[in-house]
Specification:
By secondary structure, the chain is α/β, with parallel strands linked by helices. The chain is about 40% helix and about 15% strand. The strands form four sheets. The chain has a seven-stranded mixed β-sheet with strand order 4-12-11-10-7-5-6. Strands 1-2-3-15 form a four-stranded mixed β-sheet. The protein has a four-stranded antiparallel β-sheet with strand order 13-14-17-16, with helices on one face. Helix 5 packs parallel to helix 12. It folds into two domains: about 160 residues, Aspartate Aminotransferase, domain 1 (Alpha-Beta Complex); about 260 residues, Type I PLP-dependent aspartate aminotransferase-like (Major domain) (Aspartate Aminotransferase, domain 2). A hairpin with a 4-residue loop joins strand 2 and strand 3.
Length: about 425
Amino acid sequence: MELFERWESEIRGYSRAYPTVFTKASNARQFDEQGRSYIDFFAGAGVLNFGHNNPRMKEALIRFIEADGVAHSLDMATDVKREFIRAFVDTIIKPRNWDYRLQFMGPTGTNAVEAALKLARRVTGRSHVIAFSQGFHGMTLGSLACTANQYFRNAAGVPLNHVSHVPFETPNGCGMGCLNTLRETLENSSSGVDAPAAFIVEPLQAEGGVNIASREWLLQLQQLARDTGALLIFDDIQAGCGRTGQYFSFDGMGLDPDIICLAKGIGGYGTPLAMNLVKPEHDAHWQPGEHTGTFRGQGFSFVAGREALRYFEDDALMRQTRERGESVHARLKALAETYTAAGFEARGKGMMQALDVVEGTRAKAIARECFERGLLVGPCGVGGRVVKLIPPLTIPDDDLEQGLRLLEDAVHHVMEAEDA
């Protein structure tokens, strides 16, 4: 690690949490240069929903490279982009009876959020956006203004304007009460609060601590957006693309957002891709080339992403994801009940599960102990108090079981050390 410590920026983060040099990876395992194997319950922060070096995607990518496929094309039309769009529309859009335009704006989730905010302000002629406590939307300035985490916000160096934050539903929120108060405020002509251009929300907050909004709360938020003439933006960047046992984290709730932001898992293989689903009447406000980006036509991601969509042509993987999610949740719930006195709590949906261990230092200690035992997990939430589990959806049963045992052992070890 000496070369990284000498030459790489102080900004590096994950290499500090996992202080080893990785050399190869397959599905839910990574291997370091000492030959040690680690079970990956982190999956690139949700990028690798289909595992490291997914063989179906690798084969498709090799064929693409050998055929001299167009790897980079700005936003020109290519055959692999056409195949991705066709597959996404046929597999995801049409079965839901939706009508959205697909906007490719750049490589990462923060680019998707920036484009959504810009369009919402263009459509409404307003500047103010309402975001929610614990929300995470990216690190560029517009997205960072919507992000609630003070540690990230403090690094901006400039005021993060035109966004206000109100309480999310859960946890430590105030449920429907705060949403009702927000409605009363926006409907009060003497409140001094202007109607917003948009509400931006993660239906399932990932980095915020795996906080799940209810159908009732989201429907009420959607109605508030309609009544105030604001756009409703759903950030499903980490919780989407099958992570919860359905393609979108909010599937089946009767919701109709104006813009849906996707990234991370949509590229399939780990190559970057971000995409917004935009209602046609809003998309019509764009002028050609008005919002641009160098990496909108990334051929590798379209090839791998098209293979990823094959997993959604039937319900086999999603059914398995839901079943496994229930099993993992039961294990975490049992672990939480062991430490009820410490305030532990288990929560999650599908294969995004979490153990809230109340204290950030405790979560970091658990993550370090997991690493020493050969398991990769990442803390999140307020003060880093939540241990989040987001293994590949394709993880073998044996690796899933072994990883859960390693986590349980690590938690017991840390808690016993506290009591000693």
